[in-house]
Amino acid sequence: MKRKVPIAIIFVVGQFLAFFMDGSISQILSGTLFKYPNTMVPCLTMMWLILAAFFGNSKKLHLSAWAAIIGFIFDMYYTGILGVYVFIFPLVVYLCQVIYQQLPPSFMSGFLVYFLGITVLVTLGFVANAFIGQASTSVSQFLVNTLAPTLALNLVFLAILYFPIETLYRTHRR
């Protein structure tokens, strides 16, 4: 008889895979993703958290704690500025979860909520970086050259990964 791997273990392993895939995709495709004047930032870490909020049991998975932990690690590893994503990740996960619960569960609802989540994530990251003097671009340049391309890239990732991740969570639901 085969033993099922607990969804909590799958969640943690998937979270760290998504975390490292963010950096790997950015490194491998840097010539395309960060071609002046546009910037496309992969947000697979956030996608994994948001889809866990959609399909998993957030209390069993301790999503808020994991969002803060992975936000702290994200800050240390990718940005070097502690405190930005440690607060933004849990906030975005919470907002997405609350909004998704108000909508009928479907791909289009998930697509819309993920769109809003990535918008909030990238915008709050920009605002925080502008506040501390790390971002020197105008709001209109940010919207056109960073937010729009980032949304396009991440919505393509969501379209590709939504159903496999949903299936993963459904097959391990107890």
Automatic annotation (TrEMBL):
It is found in: Cell membrane. The chain crosses the membrane at residues 36-55, 76-100, 112-132, 144-165. Its main location: membrane. GO terms for biological process: regulation of cell shape. It is a multi-pass membrane protein. One of its GO terms (cellular component) is plasma membrane. InterPro entries: Cell_shape_determining_MreD. It comes from the Bacteria. Keywords: Cell membrane, Cell shape, Membrane, Transmembrane, Transmembrane helix. Belongs to the MreD family. This is Rod shape-determining protein MreD. It comes from Lentilactobacillus rapi.
